Amino acid sequence: MAYVVGGRIEVYDAQTGASVGHLQPGLEVGGDLPGEAVGWVDIPEAIQAICRSNAEYLVLVEEDWKSKILMYQWN
Predict the structure, then answer these.
(1) Domain boundaries of the chain, sorted by first residue
(2) DSSP per residue, 37-65
(3) pTM score, whole prediction
(4) With contact defined as beta carbons under 8 Å apart, do 57 and 48 qualify?
(5) Which uninterrupted H or E stretch holds 72?
């Protein structure tokens, strides 16, 4: 689940619905504070998660303030 502002992504277990963690954009995205240079995630299907053959997930999130796609790796 993506928050509308700040770029934080909540990760849940698909079987149980239990929270298993979160992803947050770091300083490499820009700004002086984590998530500072991330705008709104405000379109349907703005987040996609792809499970790779090694069980790692790639999570892609549309961000429209500075026209970018954020990519996270989740193990």
Answers:
(1) 9-74
(2) T-----STT-EEEEE-TTS-EEEEEEETT
(3) 0.78
(4) no
(5) strand 68-74
